[in-house]
Structures are given as C-alpha cells and as structure tokens.
Specification:
With 85 residues, the protein is of the alpha+beta class. The chain has one domain. Helices cover 46% and strands 12% of the residues. It is built from 2 helices and 2 strands, in the order ααββ. The chain has a two-stranded antiparallel sheet with strand order 1-2. The N terminus is likely disordered.
C-alpha cells in the first residue's frame, strides 16, 4: 500500500484565508486597469496592452470565484454565464 504524501500547502492550511486571497485577486484586477502605459510605441505598446487585458481577465475571473473547501480540497467555482440585463 502506498503512503499518502503531504501536500505542498498542508503546513500552511491553518493560515489560509480564501476570502482574503480572492480580495487580493480583485485588487490586482483593479491595479491592472489603473496601470499606466510605459513610454513604448508600436508593437511593444500593443503587446503591453494585450498583456494587461489578459492579466485583468485572469485576476478578475479568480476574484469573482465562489469557493468551497471539502476534505482539504479547495474548489473555486466561476460562473461564466452572461449576466441578465
């Protein structure tokens, strides 16, 4: 029988605050929106803007997640359905 191995995060689970983590992701999404453009032009400017858009989407999606913890497994649920108008 194979012994179970400890997770990388097991020793830190007692200090894990999921709500605070999700708030940090929301803060990062806001920060990306407020990030000033560096003095670049052309292709570098386009690449910077595209990366900022991806960063915002990534942070905003995680920031909007609902979470559940069951048997030591953290599950983030993200509703990607369009909001009703």
């Amino acid at each position: 029988m194979e012994a179970s191995r400890p997770t990388r995060y097991g020793e830190h689970m007692a200090e894990l605050d999921i709500d605070a983590m999700l708030e940090r992701f929301r803060d990062r999404a806001k920060a990306v929106k407020q990030r000033p453009l560096p003095p670049v032009a052309g292709d570098e400017r386009k690449a910077f803007i595209e990366q900022a858009q991806r960063d915002f989407m990534d942070f905003a999606i995680i920031g909007d997640a609902a979470w559940a913890m069951k048997d030591g497994v953290l599950t983030l649920t993200v509703d990607l359905r369009p909001k009703d108008s």
